[in-house]
């Protein structure tokens, strides 16, 4: 019954917001350890959709929602306000099929999901560019401006970048009102931090971090496959992922991850 109801709801909705909740609580990764970050994302989308669709009753069949919330209730976990000062809430945002306007939505949804007023740190992955085009300061500017607005509105404390070389990081630093506090470097592409990047980061007090995320953490095809496998006969090819946000909550004094999860938003392009 559940998957049929889920399919009907998906055919009526215009947007889908999927929240995994805390993966550490919910056996999303219990059976086997995903080999790559992309596999982990796909696995979590599929399991969240499967669990959500199995819980939908017949009574929801008539309800038409423009934005469909796909969550697993028992996995959602808000932060206790009394513990907030002891925790660091960080996020990395991957824009997939959208533009800079979706940054505010992603941050608002993350704050709401975790029950906090602001995120301590948000890193933005390089927004997708057309084939044959290089990422430029001009292309990055609207995304960075949106992040700066969120800092000024006290929704984010610090903002950072990912995979910028020394030239682009310097251009952004000189132009930006709110300076990048960190820049992630993918060690798969360079085993050693580039010396010019290290020197510039040290001079400007930018923290260099490492990561192992692929250039495309969630592609359209992968999202549609997860949808197809979770909900029978769904028109998966109508759904386009807009953005993905991965968050982690760390106990500052011990460096232990208390919570980790994904929030994904997709839209339906009805043919």
Can you tell me about this structure?
This protein has helices at residues 2-12, 37-55, 102-114, 137-152, 166-175, 195-203, 220-230; strands at 15-19, 67-71, 87-95, 119-124, 156-162, 182-186, 207-211, 239-251, 256-268. With 271 residues, it is an alpha/beta fold. Strands 2-1-9-8-3-4-5-6-7 form a 9-stranded mixed sheet, with helices on both faces. Helix 3 links the parallel strand 3 and strand 4. The longest helix has 19 residues, at 37-55. The mean pLDDT is 88.
Distance between the termini: 26 Å
User: What best-fitting shape do the alpha-carbon axes yield?
Assistant: globular
The share of residues in extended strands comes to: 25-35%
Give the number of helices. Answer: 7
Structural class by secondary-structure content? alpha/beta
Helix content: 25-40%
In order across it, which strands form the biggest sheet?
2-1-9-8-3-4-5-6-7
Mean pLDDT value: 88
Order of H and E elements: HEHEEHEHEHEHEHEE
Q: Mind describing the biggest β-sheet? A: 9 strands, mixed
- Rounded to an integer in angstroms, the radius of gyration calculated over CA atoms is 19 Å
How many runs of DSSP E, i.e. beta strands?
Answer: 9
Low-confidence stretches: none
């Amino acid at each position: 019954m559940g998957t049929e109801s889920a399919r009907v709801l998906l055919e009526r909705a215009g947007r889908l917001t999927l929240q995994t909740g805390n993966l550490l609580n919910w056996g999303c990764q219990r059976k086997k350890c995903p080999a790559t970050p992309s596999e982990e994302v796909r696995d979590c989308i599929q399991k969240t959709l499967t669990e959500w669709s199995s819980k939908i009753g017949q009574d929801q069949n008539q309800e038409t929602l423009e934005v469909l919330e796909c969550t697993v209730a028992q996995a959602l976990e808000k932060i206790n306000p009394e513990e907030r000062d002891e925790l660091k809430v960080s996020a990395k945002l991957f824009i997939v099929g959208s533009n800079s306007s979706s940054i505010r939505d992603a941050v608002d949804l993350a704050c709401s999901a975790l029950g906090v007023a602001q995120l301590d740190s948000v890193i933005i992955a390089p927004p997708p560019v057309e084939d044959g085009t290089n990422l430029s300061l001009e292309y990055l500017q609207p995304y960075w401006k949106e992040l700066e607005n969120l800092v000024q509105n006290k929704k984010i404390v610090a903002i950072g970048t990912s995979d910028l070389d020394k030239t682009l990081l310097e251009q952004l630093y000189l132009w930006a009102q709110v300076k990048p506090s960190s820049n992630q470097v993918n060690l798969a592409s360079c085993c050693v931090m580039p010396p010019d990047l290290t020197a510039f980061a040290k001079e400007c007090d930018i923290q260099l971090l490492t990561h192992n995320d692929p250039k495309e953490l969630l592609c359209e095809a992968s999202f549609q496959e997860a949808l197809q496998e979770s909900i029978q006969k769904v028109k998966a090819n109508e759904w386009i992922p807009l953005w993905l946000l991965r968050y982690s909550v760390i106990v500052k004094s011990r460096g232990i991850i208390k919570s980790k999860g994904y929030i994904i938003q997709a839209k339906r392009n009805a043919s």
